[in-house]
Automatic annotation (TrEMBL):
Pfam short name (any one): NDUS4
GO cellular component entries: membrane
Major localisation: membrane
Organism: Sphingomonas aracearum
This protein's UniProt keywords: Electron transport, Membrane, Respiratory chain, Transit peptide, Transport
Name of the protein described by the UniProt record: ETC complex I subunit
PANTHER family the UniProt entry points to: NADH DEHYDROGENASE [UBIQUINONE] IRON-SULFUR PROTEIN 4, MITOCHONDRIAL, NADH-UBIQUINONE OXIDOREDUCTASE
Polar residues biased stretches: 10-22
The keyword Transit peptide appears for this protein: yes
Top-rank taxon, per record: Bacteria
Region (Disordered): 1-22
Record's subcellular location: Membrane
GO biological process: electron transport chain
Amino acid sequence: MPTARIYQRPKNSTQSGRANTNRWQLEFAPEHAKHADPLTGWAGSEDVREQIRLSFPTREAAIAYAEREGLAFTVHEAPERKLKLQAYADNFR
């Protein structure tokens, strides 16, 4: 039975906005180990599910899809945002 991971993407530290951080992602766990290609040396595998990443508007929609398709899944909550409030004058203390 394929396993999946459901998570909400956190905001990248290099981003100033929060676009697409409210969507939930479902991605499949790899079923086969990666191996080095003899010609190029790049890592790869025969597992095409590794390339699939589904996007859902809500956590419940992602869970409903996984249950409907008979997938074993784990849900990873997004880390809580921590705001560090600081004044510009604090840079010169």
